[in-house]
From TrEMBL:
This is Acyl-CoA dehydrogenase family protein. Its cofactor is FAD. Pathway: Amino-acid degradation; L-valine degradation. The lineage of its organism: Bacteria, Pseudomonadati, Pseudomonadota, Alphaproteobacteria, Hyphomicrobiales. Belongs to the acyl-CoA dehydrogenase family. It comes from Tianweitania sediminis. InterPro entries: Acyl-CoA_DH_CS, Acyl-CoA_Oxase/DH_mid-dom, Acyl-CoA_Oxase/DH_mid-dom_sf, AcylCo_DH-like_C, AcylCo_DH/oxidase_C, AcylCoA_DH/ox_N, AcylCoA_DH/ox_N_sf, AcylCoA_DH/oxidase_NM_dom_sf. One of its GO terms (biological process) is L-leucine catabolic process. It comes from the Bacteria.
Length: 401
């Protein structure tokens, strides 16, 4: 089955270095993370040793310059690391993306020199765990407009009040990039971003949430009750958080696609193996044309996803600091993640079908992968929000009544 996973596409910016990055992440994840995935899924268990190990192997801080402890590569390389990790432990891969992309890369792109020096080396080493808090109980798809968490200035501090929900890494995070309203009158243009540390007074994890998929990646509701954050931890200018959110969301969407791709590749691999070995009517089920049809459909979805994913990563890697959140890249990243999520859903649906009853059993790997698919159509903006972005960009300039 290596033929499927190791197919080397000559695509966009994919070169020998990228091949090495993907192979290296794949090897590390197979040796070090795959063995953790079953217990993570069974118990929503968080293996404390995993993040330092990922850091020791140079697989954090991919997009962050070496002077801050990172690898000094680009978003394309980061996507390949994520694809490799997702093949073997997609829950850890989700924790990785929340840490490395949503938190560390956002601090690098939007933080000042002091913030970069204080936070990035520990995040790149995996000594500290990062998270990003945008979504609230009353503010999901309308995260900016409906945001209720506030931050009021008090001397050389801001005081945060409110809550965040569904935050990946929330229960275990040391460093959180959190959005709050500094001017309620200004709506989305009254939002600022802050770096909150878990020990800051007034911060607490309200509850750890139990999920249907991606189990073991930790998810929480977070509370801020008169939480005092030094003004030095505000990221960017006051009331300019919307820029940070919007450009960060484009990069996040570009990164969800390789997460989907890694999962779908593994599902295809498992399913082809199963079709070759499972016997019915005295033959491998792979000899039946209807099973062959399902495998062919899965393959086409995976390869289309690969092409679109790499094209989008290649474009997103060129987005300068301060750019994104509008225009071609906004449309492309929304389209890529929308396609990847829907294609992964289809691939896993077919994979379970080929696996028959064994695919329906909770403990099987294919079942674990199947339960992961729905989140990709919800997180980082739902399918409907992605469609709104794509059509909104296509219809720009249209006269509306
Ligand atoms: C496991 C998990 C991890 C997550 N991790 C993070 C994280 O690390 N950080 C973070 O900030 N957030 C995180 N999220 C939150 C995620 O981004 C939100 O769940 C998502 O944006 C949707 O918001 P919502 O759940 O409130 O759904 P809602 O916004 O309430 O949407 C419900 C339904 O209504 C539809 N809908 C809403 N508005 C419209 C509209 N105008 N037109 C058409 N349909 C519409 C939606 O598409 C959806 O189908 C995570 C969520 C999950 C489940």
């Amino acid at each position: 089955m290596d033929a499927i996973r190791n197919e080397k596409p000559n695509l966009f910016d994919f070169d020998a270095d990228h091949e090495m990055i993907l192979d290296n992440a794949d090897r590390f994840a197979r040796n070090e993370l795959y063995g953790l995935s079953e217990r993570m899924d069974n118990e929503e268990w968080w293996p404390d040793e995993a993040f330092p190990k990922i850091g020791d192997n140079g697989l954090f801080g991919i997009t962050i310059p070496e002077e801050f402890g990172g690898a000094g590569l680009d978003l394309f390389a980061a996507g390949l690391v994520l694809q490799g990790l997702a093949r073997w432990n997609h829950a850890m891969a989700l924790a990785w993306v929340a840490h490395d992309n949503l938190c560390a890369n956002n601090i690098y792109r939007n933080g000042n020199e002091d913030q970069r020096r204080r936070y990035l080396p520990d995040l790149c080493a995996g000594r500290k765990i990062g998270a990003l808090g945008l979504t609230e109980p009353g503010a999901g798809s309308d995260a900016l407009g409906s945001m209720r968490t506030t931050a009021r200035r008090d001397g050389d501090h801001y005081v945060l009040n409110g809550s965040k929900i569904y935050i990946t890494n929330g229960p275990v995070a040391d460093v959180l990039l959190v959005y709050a309203k500094t001017d309620r009158e200004k709506g989305p243009h009254g939002i600022s971003a802050f770096i909150v540390e878990k020990d800051m007074p007034g911060f607490k994890v309200a509850q750890k949430l139990v999920k249907m998929g991606y189990r073991g990646s930790q998810t929480a509701e977070l509370l801020f009750e008169e939480c005092r954050v030094p003004a030095a931890n505000r990221v960017g200018e006051e009331n300019e958080g919307v820029r940070v959110v919007m450009s960060g969301l484009d990069l996040e969407r570009a990164m969800i696609s390789p997460l989907c791709l890694g999962i779908a590749e593994r599902a295809l691999e498992l399913t082809v193996d199963f079709a070759k070995t499972r016997q019915q009517f005295g033959k491998p089920i792979g000899s039946f044309q209807m099973v062959q049809s399902m495998l062919a459909d899965m393959y086409v979805h995976v390869e289309t996803m690969r092409t679109f994913t790499y094209r989008t990563l290649s474009a997103a890697a060129k987005v300068e600091i301060g750019e994104g959140g509008r225009g071609d890249i906004h449309r492309l990243t929304a389209a890529s993640v929308m396609y990847a999520a829907e294609a992964t859903h289809k691939v896993l649906d077919l994979a379970v079908q080929v696996h028959g009853g064994s695919g329906y059993i909770w403990e099987s790997e294919i079942n674990r992968l199947f339960r992961s698919t729905k989140l990709m159509e919800i997180g980082a903006g739902t399918t409907e929000v992605r469609k709104m972005i794509i059509s909104g960009e296509l219809l720009k300039g249209m006269k509306r009544d």
